[in-house]
Amino acid sequence: MADNRSLIEQAYSAFNRRDIDGALALMTEDVSWPRASEGGRVVGKEEIRAYWTRQWGEFDPRVEPLEISVEDGGRVRVRVHQLVRSLQGEVLSDSEVLHVFTVNNGLIAAMHLGDEADTTGPSAAFAHRS
């Protein structure tokens, strides 16, 4: 169980450093990920790479884990502080959100936003898109 906690901490650290390769190395080949700033989902490492590259070209998001709860069945719930800034430094969103991960064989297989099914539109944190 501690391994799953470490895995998730490493993933957040890599994301915040903009280390795409480091973050993707922690994921399964067919990882499923929400497109929080666009809506919908992407599947696979290369789709995540393309999504994050687009996202970081428009916003400066940072996510810091506040509480990590490792559950049975490879599920990890993470309460995070999410700060989204414009590329000019303006705060667009400053909130706490819930991320729920599924871990299979020591790798991240999926991430969901909160307890609900992902919506088709962007999350509230990215509602300020121009």
Spatial order of the strands forming the largest sheet: 2-1-6-5-4-3
Which secondary-structure class do the elements indicate?
Answer: alpha+beta
SSE arrangement, N to C: HHEEHEEEE
What is the helical fraction, as a range of percent?
Answer: 25-40%
Largest sheet: 6 strands, mixed
| Morphology call | globular
CATH fold title: Nuclear Transport Factor 2, Chain: A
* Total count of domains: 1
CATH architecture: Roll
Stretches where pLDDT falls below 50 for ≥5 residues? none
CATH class: Alpha Beta
Rg measurement, Å:
14 Å
Number of helices: 3
Q: What does this protein structure show overall?
A:
It contains three helices and six strands, in the order ααββαββββ. By secondary structure, the chain is of the alpha+beta class. It has a single domain (2-126), classed as Nuclear Transport Factor 2, Chain: A (Roll). A hairpin with a 4-residue loop joins strand 3 and strand 4 (75-86). It holds the Pfam family SnoaL_2.
Give a quick rundown of the structure:
The chain has helices at 2-17, 20-24, 45-58; strands spanning 27-34, 41-43, 59-70, 75-86, 91-104, 107-113.
List keywords for this structure.
globular, NTF2-like_dom_sf, Nuclear transport factor 2 family protein, single chain, SnoaL-like, Nuclear Transport Factor 2, Chain: A, 130 residues, alpha+beta
